[in-house]
User: Fold these one by one.
Assistant:
Number 1:
Amino acid sequence: MAESKKFTLEEVAKHNKSGDLWVVIDSVVYDLSKFEDLHPGGGVVLRDPEVAGQECTDLFYQLHRHEVLEKYKRYIIGSIEGGQKFVVEKLAGEISTVPFAEPTWLQPSFSSPYYNEGHRKFQKFVRKFSEEEGFPEAYKLEDGGGMWSDKIIKRMVDLNVNEMRLGPGKHLHGITLPTGLKGEEFDYFHELILNQELCRSLCRATQDGFFGGMVIGLPPVLNFANPEVKKKVCSEVFQGKKFICLAISEAFAGSDVANLRCTATKTADGKHYIVNGTKKWITNGTFADYFVTGVRTDGGLSMLLIERSEGVETKPIKTSYSSTGTSIAGTAYVTFDNVKVPVENLLGEEHEGFKVILSNFNHERWVMTCATIRSSRQVVEECLKWVHQRKVFNKPLISQPVIRNKLAKMISLCESHQAWLEMITFQMNKMTYKEQGKHLAGQIALIKSSSTRMSHYIADEAVQIFGGRGITKTGMGARIENFYRNVKFDAILGGSEEILMDLGIRQALRNMPKAML
């Protein structure tokens, strides 16, 4: 190994000029002579007297993320004799030791009534899989767009990730999941773990591009399609051969689903529907093969499964996900122009589409809440690391009381919302789907709206803590910038905050007794 060769600080100090330039970072010696003019900030940065030939660990970590060292390992030529490494390197799959970086149940000194040993094994597996296989690809795809590699899609199929992302149910029965977990034993805490681990990259576009359209689009097929259609479509989607999305929102109707204008008219022989209209802001729509679509029929609202075919056109919508307009999230404007759809593709009963739409709202909002809360905690971890690295007025940023106050509020919000989420998840495990709709719709609506309010606050404070780096797409604050730029998605998708807060109160008032002061 290159680090086996030993040097003294005095020896390193002799290599302090252009063409012969060494530095020491955390007791490791790097020969940057050939990298000098390749440095993004220019060679002048490395030729600085405080850098060239010097021990510059503190200076390096004020300007770079740790993964930069991983990228440039080839420049390592040795280590400092008797030197001691101080930077803690977290291996893939490991639990973070940064205070409050992990939910309480994952911290070694704490216990939880909700999670058993099976949950803990499952978490370790998902953490290792996401950090070793998922995140590296996510970081590459986040801004430039593209599509997940065939390798990742195959791994998802092999691990039954697609099935697990739809939550507990009969579709998992008879399947052996990672860690030997039986599909029948998969519960909502397993799904919570899956959702929260997969979002830790803070790559918002790839989070939705990780087939978020399937999470909200396939349940109506799973629960309301006729047996033949269900078998065909679910198999294709679970096997990664086809992709699906939910197409409800229009330019004319977002939360106001009742005002959809996309129409479906039956042919004279009653064998097909002819669909005309548009849909907007459809996640995964640009690459979807199937569109689970809300349409207006002559007697009300209906749901149809529309296959990409003649008359179906999709165009990418430029959103804050990406500066290129080709985000991996695949947000689309969809046009249906005299599209012929077999009546067998009707989901549920004709004119009863509201039931189909509403059936998955609670699960969709709960999934989004899981990610919002965990992503916010990940931002807090970024902030905790930064305030110890960054020095202002010759002191670490954490020495400022105002910074500690900000962190205290951010941490309190993360802890309280995680506790609320776990309580709701426990109730989901104890209730049928119908009971969840009756008793938890309001709770889930309130926690989703509250958690997105929390994420707004945390995003704002994180940018204040990172300063200019928090509004810069690259470098130390890249993940903070991404979080801040995309924080509005969860406040709008799945039901806006205002709609959900009203829903939560209206559901509670149904059980309001005639109590008087």
Number 2:
Amino acid sequence: HEVGRSIATIMSNQEFQQKMYSASSKEEVLAELNVFLNDSIVLPPGEYGADHILPKTLQKSIRKRKKQAAEIDEDKRVRYPVVGYTSELKEHFDPLSRTGRYFGGLIRDVKTLRKRYLSDIKDGMNLVTLESVLLMFGLMLAPAITFGGLAGKHTKGDYGVIEMLLSTCLGGVVFSLLTGQPLTVFGCTGPIYVFEVHLSHFCHYDYVHFDFLQWRAWIGCWIFLFFTSFSFLELGFLIHYFTRFTEEIVAVMVSLIFLYEAGYDVIAVFKENPITSAGNETSAEYCKLSMTPLPKYHPGCPNTALFSLILMSGTFIVAYCLKKLRKSHYLQQRLRSVMSGFGITIAMITMIIVANLTTSVYTEPLVMPDKFQHTATKRESWYIDMFDTSYTSISIPLLAISAVIPAFLVSVLIIMESHLTGVLVRKPGHRLVKGCTPNWDTFLMGAILLVCSLLGLPWLCADSVRTIEHIKTLTVYSKYSAPGEKPRVLYIHEQRVTIVLVHVLVGLFILFPSVIQSIPVAVLLGVFLFLGFLSLSGLQFVKRFKMLFMSSKYFPDYSFTSKVRTAKIHTFTVLQLILSALMFGIKLSPGSFLFPICVIGLALIRRYAMKSIFSEEEIEELDPEESGSELDESDHE
């Protein structure tokens, strides 16, 4: 019985338990047992105070050995059988490492892509792929319509829904067919949307007189040059400067912008349609709830403002509740997952039905051309002529040179977001087999962005939130586990069929303009509000912010809460909060499109300035360089 008690004690260690489950021979069991015993400190019975706790140097040594063991274990992890691709073909190198040759990383990535391409098609021929297509379609369509509809309003009609859907379809299909990491979702994201809107505001200032689309075309040329140079010089290693510290501040800033824009637009509706309509008897007469449709819009209608607020709030509440449904105990687990995945779509459809049934109250509809043409009516062709002098008041060479700065800024933003998404995808817990191609993907994105710029289409980049959701839909978990243990990730279907079909389905909505025109703008504001709150979900910053108002004895059980002093944890959180507020303040200034410069500054602060405030051990706990969210297995039951 003593042997049994000893084994039970050892198996209570979760890390050792997982390694035992994955061991395939007696030799592996004995090797892991020796490693565990080497890292264990046996203390005789007695009372121990703080002086007897392991010294920090020994703790650091043990953590270092565990990290090295995890890197070795990466090559031994469980792999699933894939068609036309074997585990022997898996690359044993850091995909962001430099080869020392010009275009060396790009050539290496192309070879990796060639090895896996056929298997990516064959591995997508299953029912899991079909289910993933249906779930991801809802996650892709709603944000595309939302970003496109609100962009048409905030860019004064330079581009809108039809351009967003077309860009998502064409850019997404091309990227999904040619990328070396097809699990990545390519679409419009919050930071890119914010940058484009601010760039449009800058172009429409009275003292600038730039044509937005023409300037974007020149910016697109410079973006392609910067992206090509990035791949040429193998600069992917620079992504290690952008850690969770920077990610969280950018996420908080984008979330605040979403909430601000939604609130600002609702307030504008109330200003145009005040609650009291004294002196406007005609407006008040038409605003009464009746079954008679309004022949036209009358400004000053109080019901319009109130109904818009109801639609926005209803969209947010329904989407938020369905998002929370995934982890509730209602309904069956599969049904909860489906309803949660279609949460935004269900919320939009519900509020659209409510709006269209209430025909007696006017709400601002989404603007979209009735036929396949550019939203900007002044444009006769989809191609943007970069040398046309009729749209700008300055010379073409000066316009081209002035595009260098914004091109560099948006390049930094897109490369940062795309490579950080790649880091999340490559997490060891995802158990991926086929490798990735960051240099090739960067070059491919540059080419796609160039084409989008020349056609007046919105810019796209890798979307981390929807990428993680895509991975979840393709994940296979263990069916059996020890009592109280979460199901383990067995493997993920690595294929490129799902996301190609999703982008094609999104593009087909261009053929139904009447459906899109029936969507009230207030519903899109509700989606915008939901996306603002969604950007904050899962951030460690939010958890640490809540800890500012908690007693230390009620802190959650995180690694840093036991290894970092409370004062240092709060200092780190307050520092992020101040920097987020500064970033948001820059957004409200005329030079708001320059905020990517601040993102570079955040990376430098994290890399150099924070060492004077925090020790290396504290920084390692609060913001490890290889930080990021792995696949949340808690969502699976």
